[in-house]
Design brief:
Two copies of one chain form a homodimer. By secondary structure, chain A is mostly helical. The first copy, chain A, folds into two domains: about 5-30 and about 180-320, Cytochrome c-like domain (Cytochrome Bc1 Complex, Chain D, domain 2, Orthogonal Bundle), CATH 1.10.760.10; about 45-175, Orthogonal Bundle (Cytochrome Bc1 Complex, Chain D, domain 2), CATH 1.10.760.10. Chain A has helices at about 10-15, 45-55, 65-70, 115-125, 135-145, 150-155, 165-175, 185-190, 200-210, 245, 260, 295-305, 310-320, and strands at about 5-10, 25-30, 235, 270. At the A-B interface, loops of A face loops of B.
Chain lengths: ~350, ~350
């Protein structure tokens, strides 16, 4: 929690537009740095190594799937698919969350089953429908077999047995903690630049709060309050299911966190996803069943708040959410270390 | 053919090591620029657009396969797989050639069926086991649906209907013509820096020429002489088949160019692949059946030249071929234009 949040009450900023819920809600700008766990402070050397590992597809069974395949940093940090496609074209049941600003969430995966980015990174490597490695040490054997990786691990973690699964996960997480997108029009607005949002976006901001969206989508990343790593911030979805939500959107098949805990109380509980850069991450919902942002907004209001939005309200909110698209850090394309004269990938995989 | 090749006879350079074939062979450095077709001169604007298209996976049926998926510019310009994996995990029968320095080849694909990089780019988009689009215009509809692409096309091709398949292919080809890797130790050596190759590499250079490898692997990219675009430079492989080549390496199933022309004379004819950065592109052969560079060298000598190499000769040649790894241009990671609030990818694809 070593971070500063810039918190400004909207009342002073949007003036007469702010009424009802909107004037008491704390609108927060994105901090310049993400929270870091005490046992993995972010360093340049870890970030450099983490970037290589993040883009390297050779640690998947087929050699074709890297972290970036489903969490594409050249796009909105996801793959714009309903559900992701891992090794051998396999698909699971959930939509890839964006990696941008994931560092501001206190748990990871839709059901919050990973308490940290470090843990999340490990999970995807051995998920049979994602990177498909049989075990983490098998993936790490591949990393260790690439001579050029060793100096990066030594620089990041010292020379005493640095090439471990733990350290690889720490490096990827450290890299991801730098993948944040500050300076969106919204951020500039809450910091005092009244011209950063146009009138429609300001109307949308008010509708967003008044409708009740801020009840869950609070905090600097609109994914709930910043809490200690591992703290779950889950909400039931859908709260007020309808026939449409069950049939057209198939929202009742997946039981959310219940699949992890088998506790009745965890049925249909999900992590509150960030709304940062939400315009770039269609389709929406845990199963990608809402094809457009308009559609997602309309359904969320109905299923979570029993509110029917009119077209004007939806349009205004879409405009506001578009103002949550931030500035993406310019990145150099890494060169991945080679295995000179041979390949790590088995042709039968 | 608007290019300058630096051609230096090896005799003057390697002195007493140069005997037999090696002293008469023209060792060429990689030109600083690749040849350009008259109807597609390389411009900064085309390269910028081509880079975006090259890395964008949304023009494949599943939204998961970009040019870079199989021709990975963060690696050796291929995927280190025996045969590539396209949409839905589908595989074909041939190994992805490297994109690095592909601009120096006068035809593309293993069977030379594309006469230019422009034509090659089109082929992969609609190949059912590669990007899997049903037709080029369907892929182009996706490009046209992304608002942010239009300014790039206008800047590259003018404002009069610039968003065409032809122009997209030209932009990708223009980008690929900048993906060249000069200044390898070999290049510095043939330009006069005698210390650029160590003794073993120099021995390997001589063995390479004396064994007869230069009979096909000539020219600045070791893929044959620079010839006008569309000129085929094909060789029979294997020339002297053995039981081993048929069984262990399965080299007789694929009939090479015969599959394109159905002419008896084209049976088992293939393009001569570049040896630039060959240490980075394992596995080897058109079907990826040679797992290591040692193995590929031993088999090539046997199958093409009826020569049995001893271990010392193989080791020396591997060292020499390692000296063909060049300098890779540093690249900025592109940000791909968005479809705000919706997705191009159908969930059923």
């Amino acid at each position: 929690m070593n971070m500063i949040t810039e918190t400004i009450a909207v009342m002073a900023l949007v003036g007469p537009l702010a009424v009802g819920a909107a004037d008491t809600f704390e609108w927060q700008a994105l901090p310049e740095k993400a929270p870091e766990p005490p046992d993995n402070p972010t360093t340049t050397e870890k970030v450099e190594l983490g970037r290589l590992l993040y883009f390297d597809p050779r640690f998947s069974a087929t050699g074709t799937v890297s972290c970036n395949s489903c969490h594409n940093l050249m796009l909105g940090g996801d793959d714009n698919r309903a559900v992701s496609m891992g090794v051998h074209g396999k698909t699971g049941g959930r939509s890839a969350p964006t990696v941008w600003n994931a560092a501001f969430a206190s748990s990871q995966f839709w059901d919050g089953r990973a308490t940290s980015l470090e843990e999340q990174a490990r999970g995807s490597v051995v998920n049979p429908v994602e990177m498909g490695m049989s075990e983490l040490e098998q993936a790490m054997d591949r990393v260790r077999a690439i001579p050029g990786y060793k100096p990066y691990f030594v620089r990041a973690f010292g020379s005493d047995n640095p090439m471990t699964v733990d350290n690889a996960a720490k490096a990827v997480a450290a890299f991801e903690r730098t993948m944040i997108t500050p300076d969106s029009p919204y951020d500039r607005f809450v910091k005092g630049d009244k011209d950063a949002l146009d009138e429609q976006q300001q109307r949308g901001m008010t509708v967003f709060a008044e409708t009740g969206c801020t009840g869950c989508h609070s905090g600097p990343a609109f994914s709930g309050p910043i809490m200690p790593s591992g703290t779950l911030y889950l909400m039931k979805f859908p709260t007020f299911p309808t026939d449409e939500s069950a049939e057209q959107y198939d929202l009742l098949t997946d039981q959310g966190r219940f699949a992890v805990t088998s506790k009745e109380a965890d049925k249909h509980l999900y992590k509150v996803p960030t709304l940062r850069n939400v315009a770039l991450t269609a389709p929406y919902f845990h199963n990608g069943s809402a094809r457009t942002l308009d559609d997602a907004l309309r359904m969320m209001a109905k299923l979570q708040l029993e509110r029917d939005l009119d077209k004007g309200q939806v349009d205004d909110m879409v405009a506001f959410l578009g103002a949550l698209t931030g500035e993406f850090p310019q990145q150099t394309m890494p060169r991945l270390p080679a295995t000179p004269g041979w390949t790590l990938i088995n042709s039968e995989d």
